[in-house]
Amino acid sequence: MEAWADNIGAMGEPSQRRDLRDEGWVARPMRLPSLLVIALAIPATLQAQSTTGRDSTGGVMLAYERLADIFGSRLVAAFEAIPAAKYAYRPTPSQQTIGYIAQHLEDANYDLCARIGDLKRPATAKDSLSDSVKARWPKDTLVARLRASFTFCDSALERVDRVESALQTSTLLAFETDLAEHYSQLAVYMRLLGMVPPSALPPRARTAITLPASELARNVGVYQLERGPRFYVTLDSGSLFVRSTTGGPPVKLWPESANDFFVKEVDAQITFTRDASGGVSGLVLHQFGRERRGTKIR
Q1: Please, are residues 54 and 161 in contact by the beta-carbon 8 Å criterion?
Q2: Confidence band (pLDDT; 50, 70, 90) for 95?
Q3: Nearest-CA neighbor of 22 among 199, 278, 262, 248?
Q4: Which of 77, 149, 222, 226 is the most exposed place for a label (fewest CB within 10 A)?
Q5: The domain 2-200: what is its CATH number?
Q6: Residue 154 to residues 150, 240, 298: CA-CA distances in angstroms?
Q7: Distance CA 236, CA 71 (A)
Q8: Alpha-helix residue ranges (DSSP H) falling in the chain
Q9: Sign of the dihedral through C-alpha 235, 236, 240, 243
Q10: How far apart are CA 79 and CA 94, in angstroms?
Q11: Which residues pair with 222 in a beta bridge?
Q12: Burial group, residue 117, by CB count within 10 angstroms (0-12, 13-18, 19+)
């Protein structure tokens, strides 16, 4: 992983290469195991078989999707955090402005994700405007369009069950690398503006409450995530635990309310959903600014 992070950083400027390590989202060897241990981010072992029928080679597409979740959510959070008055900022005259980076990412997302699968972007007249014109659009417009491009990419990736060719692999890597490179670039800009990039912000403090075992037992079961792994929720010694089919040991779920739980290993939460009769019918995984729903199957 260290070499992989260095290869990504080599495509940016020296300050960007340093930022890949400083911002703590890919390269730190002690951070990744905490993500892998409960498989709420990247599949723990690519050899593990998905129970959904996707990617019989072992969750490769799920790994690409999770990386896109990480980078995409942090990019959107960064653009949202930067004040509109700073969108014309660039460290030197030869570098891109923040507004320019936003519109470039939108275009690149649509171009690369359309090539990954068979989903096509519905073009509009505004799409043909020059980059320099789009770079001066209002912040709200740029962020909304960037969000829409990530939604397009989500749909494009979900339509691909498995990697079929070297060309498709190259395009997937180009997409992920573009996100990583520009997040590193934007993180440097934020530091120069005296701001803290999203990946360097501490998770929100959470306080666990005590629930009786009878209440916790209602959440025990097997949950199938949409186009993803299964979660096994069990009760042991008065506490709930979750384990994924992608690997890793069970991890304790700490209750915030009767329905809302969190894990301490990573910044991730699970909300159990109920049907009209009050029975637990599913769950929602909250991570990287995304929500992934799962249905209780038993």
Answers
A1: yes
A2: very high
A3: 199
A4: 226
A5: 1.20.120.450
A6: 6, 31, 28
A7: 35
A8: 2-9, 14-22, 32-36, 60-81, 98-116, 131-134, 139-158, 166-192, 213-216
A9: negative
A10: 21
A11: 232
A12: middle
> Are 147 and 76 a contacting pair, CB within 8 Å?
yes
Confidence of residue 84 (pLDDT cuts 50, 70, 90): very high
Mean pLDDT of 122-127: 88
Q: How far apart are CA 123 and CA 127, in angstroms?
A: 6
Cα distance between residue 99 and residue 133, in whole Å: 10
Question: Measured in Å, how far apart are the chain's first and last C-alpha atoms?
Answer: 37
C-alpha dihedral sign at 119, 284, 253, 289: positive
Using DSSP's 3-state secondary structure scheme, residue 242 falls into: strand
Which residues make up the CATH 2.40.128.50 domain(s) of the chain? Answer: 213-296
With vertex at residue 200, the alpha carbon angle to CA 228 and CA 12, rounded to the nearest 5 degrees, is: 85
In angstroms, the CA 176 to CA 275 distance is 38
Kindly write down the DSSP assignment for every residue of 208-222, as one continuous string: -----HHHHGGG-EE
- Banded model confidence at residue 34, pLDDT cuts 50, 70, 90: very low
Calculate mean pLDDT across residues 219-230.
88
pTM of the model: 0.71
pLDDT at 61: 85
Mean pLDDT, rounded, for 126-136: 95
Question: What CATH architecture applies to the domain 213-296?
Answer: Beta Barrel (2.40)
Q: Which residue has the tokens 């490769």?
A: 60
Please determine, for residue 247, whether its predicted confidence score (pLDDT) is greater than 80: no
Tokens 């960064």 sit on residue = 78
Structure tokens at 294: 């799962």
Q: Hey, what amino acid is at 16?
A: Q
Helices and strands in the chain, H and E counts: 9, 8
Residue extent(s) of CATH 1.20.120.450 domains in the chain? 2-200
Rounded CA gap, 148 and 127, in Å? 13
Position with higher pLDDT, 117 vs 75: 75
